[in-house]
Amino acid sequence: SSRLGFRAQATGGRFGLARGMVDLMEPGDGLCAGGAPPPGDAPPPDAGPIDAIQTPQDEAVQGEAAPESPAAKRARHADAEREDQAAVADLNESKGDDGAAAPSEPSETLEEVLAAWDALRPRAEALREAAKERRPRWATLCAEAEAAASLSAEALQREAAELAGRRYGEDAERFSVLPPSIARLLPASTRSPEELGFVEEVEAAVTAMQQVRQRLLEHITAAKARGDRDALRDLGPRYGGFAREVRALRDLDGAVTRRMSVASRRLAAYRASQEVRQLPERDLLDVPPSFAGYTKVLDFYRLSDAARYNFGRQFEGPQHFTDVKRNVAVLEAFDADGRRAFNGYAVSGIDAPGVRPDEVSCRRFQAMEVEDGGGETYSRDHDAEFKLCAALCQSVPANWRGRVVLFSKKPLCRSCADVVCAQLPRALPGISLEVTVDETEDGDAAGAAVNSAPGTRKLGLPPPASS
């Protein structure tokens, strides 16, 4: 069978399809006299609109033009070589096995394929303009992540100690505060909704471009089968040029990719360096029913044994709260004279941290079976809000009068909404109730406090179940 031959121009210290030209001719087919390229060859690789596109590798993190580092150049060349190898594999696969039937002619003309590619150019240009507008912001965020990631372990310890002192004063040693620089790396390690939307648009455009590129490959296969060397000399560079345009489009948000990589590596290194800490003998007290109280709970249990104090999907090692699956809630009650009658926190789940009411108090409320976010249905009698309501009734008499404030990090499910909004006011008719939910159903911050008289529907909460 025939072999696939190549002729490449050397550019930037490498040879390849993306910067050279593919010669799909039989072995022994020569070039023009003296080894010169045949007339009508593609223009030099630095010509054409695609090369005017500035990729993140060609731009410094700060958004200003800067010389490319040797490491970045090696990485860029390696990416280009992989793209070239993929293109070569496509071309090799297009030849078929020895003795196979000759491929049929493409169902569409070459002009139609090129027109389809040209039709995608405005879409690509719009993405380039969008990236140009966002690039200064991306560069700033990347620089901030690199600065935070560069801090030593000693510097991070000083950050944590200073923050703990401001939050908890003399009790600072009882808490394990996340260093601010590490906290800044958490959002930096993932794409924001805006960045995610942009990369989804890029991938959709890339998919459409790859489909057109595959249609061009059908013409290359057909030209190879009929031995049309002139067509191959024209189509080979086009095929490689299409690959370069696709690669440039994917590189538009390179600063975002770099930021995520830098942040993720530093977070992993920081977590790997931490050890399990023993919790103080004295339990956590004076937890305000607010986001500050939620933060206090996390600071108290951070780096504790995740196998013993479970908050989510981490079941061993130091607790880092990488995925707080369970809800955290805080409840506080004051009597008519302003004296605090109850203060407690709870984490959803059996044997979870926080209050543990007795069975008698729990039987005063009826939980429902409700489906969770993962599709599993179970009784909600171990939810944080349920346990707090039961613990409150265990602490005060039925005729107690006062104000009750409940903070919940996550939205109340249908069962907990019924317990809090309907069953608790029936158990304690003399209370006024205030509920604050920190997150909406989609996880966005809400922070809206709602005051209402007993028995009325709570804004932002599901209606009580009908009796």
Automatic annotation (TrEMBL):
Residues 25-109, 444-467 are annotated as: Disordered. Residues 36-47 have a biased composition (Pro residues). This is Uncharacterized protein. It comes from Alexandrium monilatum.
